[in-house]
UniProtKB/TrEMBL annotation:
Record-given protein name: ATP/GTP-binding protein
UniProt keywords, alphabetically: GTP-binding, Hydrolase, Nucleotide-binding
Coiled coil: none
Stored InterPro entries: Gliding_Motility_GTPase, Gpn, P-loop_NTPase
Gene3D superfamilies in the record: P-loop containing nucleotide triphosphate hydrolases
Family classification: Belongs to the GPN-loop GTPase family.
Length: 179
């Protein structure tokens, strides 16, 4: 039996790309609890996650990284502490098309730095291809002004390479922090 494993959590509002990101990087068939949305299907998004996404990836050193996706909606916040228990990192995903990406990201960063004080945090901005008006440097500065200095980068959740790069950035940032 292996003991407490490496664990990484993606959080973000609906449509941020959590399910897609977890699927993109998974080695094993990911488990997810998608339910068809009854009405108001937003554009091409016809399913939403009612609970968790889960998968695992093998790191360069052969260790297994367990990856979870957890909804950012408040009414599901009872799940946050459970999912974050022992997590080494939390990645906030935010769609560049979100009506208020800064406020929503700051709120999640505040919550998760409280819930998971030992986890490293990073932010991935998805869907910048669809919403090019969101500029990453400005976004990063806004988070910095709100007291969050952390890796912020654009990521297409559909790209295994880009999601893996984000995960590796968080892991190396964490390593640098704890040195
Ligand atoms: N064009 C584009 N679509 C993306 C990007 N990232 C995610 N998506 C799409 O956004 C939709 C919502 O993603 P999903 O993973 O279901 O979001 P979740 O609600 O956070 O789990 C899916 O159709 C994804 O393929 C991106 O960077 N660009
Ligand atoms: Mg989902």
């Amino acid at each position: 039996m292996s003991l407490p494993a490496n664990k990484l959590v993606f959080v973000g509002s609906m449509g941020a790309g959590k399910t897609t990101a977890v699927r993109a990087i998974s080695d094993v068939e990911p488990v997810s609890t998608e339910m068809p949305m009854s009405e108001d299907a937003m554009g091409d998004k016809v399913e939403t996650t009612v609970a968790l996404d889960y998968s695992s990836i093998e790191l360069d050193d052969g260790e297994l990284l367990h990856v979870y996706g957890v909804p950012g909606q408040r009414y599901l916040d009872f799940m946050w502490p459970m999912v974050c228990e022992g997590a080494l990192g939390v990645i906030v995903l935010v769609s560049a098309g979100h009506p208020d990406p800064v406020a929503s990201t700051v709120e999640l960063l505040q919550e998760f730095s409280r819930i998971a004080p030992d986890a490293s945090l990073a932010v991935g901005v998805t869907r910048t291809d669809e919403h090019p008006s969101l500029l990453i440097p400005e976004f990063r500065n806004a988070l910095f002004d709100a007291g969050h200095r952390l890796p912020v980068m654009r990521v297409d959740a559909r790209s295994a390479t880009q999601v893996t790069f984000l995960v590796k950035s968080l892991l190396s940032y964490r390593y640098a922090e704890t040195k």
